[in-house]
Amino acid sequence: MGATGHLGGLAMASKPRNGGRLCAAAAVLGEPLPALDDPDLLVHPSADFAAQALVSSTEQYREMYQRSIDDPAGFWSDIGEEFYWEQKWNPDEVCAENLDVTKGPIKIEWFKGGKTNICYNAVDRNVESGNGDKMAMYWEGNEPSDDGKLTYSELLDKVCQLANYLKSVGVGKGDAVVIYLPMLMELPIAMLACARIGAVHSVVFAGFSADALAQRIVDCKPKVVITCNAVKRGSKLIALKEIVDASLVESAKNGVNVDICLTYENQSALNKVDTRWKTGRDVWWQDVVPNFPTKCDVEWVDAEDPLFLLYTSGSTGKPKGVLHTTGGYMVYSATTFKHAFDYKPTDIYWCTADCGWITGHSYVTYGPLLNGATVLVFEGAPNYPDPGRCWDIVDKYGVTIFYTAPTLIRSLMRDGTEYVARYSRKSLRVLGSVGEPINPTAWRWFYDVIGDSRCPISDTWWQTETGGFMITPLPGAWPQKPGSATFPFFGVQPVIVDEKGREMEGECSGYLCIKKSWPGAFRTLYGDKDRYETTYFKPFAGYYFSGDGCSRDKDGYHWLTGRVDDVINVSGHRIGTAEVESALVSHPKCAEAAVVGIDHEVKGQGIYAFVTLVDGVAYSDDLRKSLIMTVRSQIGAFAAPDKIHWAPGLPKTRSGKIMRRILRKIASRQLDELGDTSTLAEPGVVEQLIALTDS
């Protein structure tokens, strides 16, 4: 597909047909969707919405997009100029890249030689421009009565105090800091404090187990771990500090000792006196950080200096440390936020994601604050104390932009409209979806029920590795189709290739790749350049391979079809099948395991595990529960299998490769689509597995 290949259908699709009247399969913002479930349904922006949008027409998008492809250096330089740089980049070297493994090592560099600091741009710059009294963050705790707020000036003071403390204990440029916190305001504060002094933060989702946390600590060898004593999620108390304690014991066994565990007292969950403590290592945040000055010098770093590590599941058992650098990521996260949500300075923005995932980095912390936005940080559960909590929060703070995951939408759908209808939601003007493809039924419910048929939905496709949105609607620029991510963001050239890497034109389905680099792209996998190149650039030479399947329809709209490798997307969390298999096999009664993903009504994908037991061990419900608990303790509750299917044996080729295609069909009950099983070493295994389907 050429640079304009995806635009062919866009111009046609953007205009009402029939002499200005909309065709049957069309609607305009402000109207309920027609009842028919038509994949070609077009939902047009209203004239009022388009008129005030940053990108208000397909023509404006076409012009901007074409320039971003024809002149990426000029396009991104102009945007880069909007930020503060202590030293400008070389205008002749805005971008240097090689995405073709056959032509040498993979290289992606943007704004190299430029010196900047993302914390300065996200916080100081807003204060210095006269917005110090503007609200930077609202915080809503687990209980509806728990809340807090920080202006940009107050945020700057707190960031500087923590940055000064970190410097006092020897943390400097290039040093790693692991952050294992719930969604307190201290989580983005800790990220910004690290960035301010040039340290590399690695946020670990506070749902990961001690073993998973230890694995990440061993890999990046942090000088400090930042956590809190406990958190409440709904009515459940989670002792985070005890998880950290166990992880530090485990990492020490592997030769990595962490000298300081800075612990925030989360008083709403647990008091100091009830917290386990190791004198000499553990330090209370509230005892030391507030004593430090509220001014801290900025460490100016190169655009290509590392900003953060974020571990993501791969198709082998070891998580991948995705490394993002500073300059390009800063420019890209800010620009994607601004345009995909049609951001206005008066907006109150709420993204429900945790900062333990890339969405919380790019679209809770950096992207919004770089635009001077007011961000809502939510620590609780969306269905606590009842399923109306989200809409209570929307009304309480006047939220205008609401960005969440299809999993949450489907979960709330099951509770019906009663809890939604109790609340006004009139402040909402843009909705967003992230983490996995949103099915059209959930899209329509989100649009009609939550948004009252008046809010466009930015259904964003992107990845931990991409740093920011890649394919996404721009709310005022073109009509949407329920379930489609629509068209590429500026500077992004998506192509759909076949098994041999040949680009396909027009209406097609295949593997989604990206041609040419973009500023937000990750630069490597920490300590594993070979895996970086093998996973992402060797499958199709000359392209970044996303690992996702994609269809393009006759109008040029993109439809993501999910993972094509052995990674399962559960509630927007990417979980490697090998990681789950490894945990299962660690159980003393498990001889072998194979894990596949299945469709799940709420979570998008569920985890379905085929388990072969050690000889002589009997099947039992207690053993099934024990296996699930093993996965929960080693990885986290979010990775727990939804189904354990007993397997006397697994379908393997004569070379020993497990035929996951057959397992997926059995798990999905598509028994008439098993295909040829004659190549299996033991074809009879398939019948045994089918017989045990409901055991």
From TrEMBL:
Q: Where is the Acetyl-coenzyme A synthetase N-terminal domain?
A: 61-122
Catalysed reaction, written as an equation: (E)-4-coumaroyl-AMP + CoA = (E)-4-coumaroyl-CoA + AMP + H(+); (E)-4-coumarate + ATP + CoA = (E)-4-coumaroyl-CoA + AMP + diphosphate; (E)-4-coumarate + ATP + H(+) = (E)-4-coumaroyl-AMP + diphosphate
Sequence ranges assigned to domain AMP-binding enzyme C-terminal in this UniProt record = 579-657
Cite a single GO MF annotation.
trans-cinnamate-CoA ligase activity
List residues of the AMP-dependent synthetase/ligase domain: 130-517
- The question of whether Secreted is a record keyword is answered with no
Question: What CDD domains does the entry give?
Answer: ACS (cd05966)
GO terms in the biological process aspect are: acetyl-CoA biosynthetic process from acetate; phenylpropanoid metabolic process
| Keywords, in A-Z order | ATP-binding, Ligase, Magnesium, Nucleotide-binding
* NCBIfam families reported in the protein's UniProt record: Ac_CoA_lig_AcsA (TIGR02188), PRK00174.1 (NF001208)
* Record family assignment: Belongs to the ATP-dependent AMP-binding enzyme family.
> What is the name of this protein?
Acetate--CoA ligase
Species assigned in the record: Digitaria exilis
The taxonomic lineage of its organism, from the top, reads: Eukaryota, Viridiplantae, Streptophyta, Embryophyta, Tracheophyta
